[in-house]
Amino acid sequence: MVVAIPARNEAASIADCLTSIDRAARGCRMPVVVTVAADGCRDETAAIARATPTVHSRVTVIEGLWHGAGRARAAAVDSALADLERELSAVWVANTDADCVVPANWLRRQLRAANSGIHAVAGVVALDPTTTPDSLLARFAATYDRRGPTHRHVHGANVGLRADCYRLVGGWSTHTVIGEDHDLWRRLMAANLHLGQPTDLTVTTSSRTSGRVAGGFASRLSRLGRQAPYQARPAY
């Protein structure tokens, strides 16, 4: 199993992210290889990632100037797959972000989906309640539809898929500046693959409103933060 993480100046959060993935790797009946793509970092992200102790997973850090989450995700996946000596149909690629914390069942939940015949899953995100103002938590909840067993969201911070399906559709786009997650999902849909969007596959993400690129998730939170409490917006 591969876990790919793009990271740009994430020294404050990368250790917590890797620790949560290591906890999630416990009980997986296969090796878990985590690849962090440190994208033009000007802080200690790469050094902290290399120094974070893990027991149930093996962490590799690559450094480069990819200038974007999509390209960094692609580099992380390509690097991890190049080191594997298994058929791609037997490899699962999980993806998250460096400012996220995953639950203990995150990887096992994806493997159960894979064993049931699903080719790719897209989960949901929750804002960190310990660092998010109550007003923003309420506005996010009002605009983020996760009722029922399935949903319609796609987040690069919570996508997993079979490696052969990843290759089939061309992987993470190296040309998309924002929305690389929706771009990948559209290509998976066009390939008529068996996709799942369960609401019980969740990662916790930071509620920062200043992101690495304009128009991303942080921009969405920034807009929500400026709204009056009663001004709910449609789900996205």
**Helicity, in percent?**
25-40%
| Approximate strand percentage | 15-25%
Distance between the termini: 30 Å
Based on the coordinates given, report the CATH architecture: Alpha-Beta Complex
| CATH C-level label | Alpha Beta
What would you give as the CATH superfamily? Spore Coat Polysaccharide Biosynthesis Protein SpsA, Chain A
- What's the helix-strand series? EHEHEHEEHEEHEHHEEH
For the CA atoms, what is the radius of gyration? 17 Å
Largest sheet: 7 strands, mixed
Query: How is the CATH topology named?
Result: Spore Coat Polysaccharide Biosynthesis Protein SpsA, Chain A
Question: Total helix count?
Answer: 8
Tell me, briefly, the overall form: globular
**Secondary structural class:** alpha/beta
The strand line-up of the biggest sheet is 3-2-1-4-8-6-9
Name its key features.
8 helices, globular, alpha/beta, 3-stranded mixed sheet, Spore Coat Polysaccharide Biosynthesis Protein SpsA, Chain A, disordered C terminus, 236 residues, 7-stranded mixed sheet, 34% helix
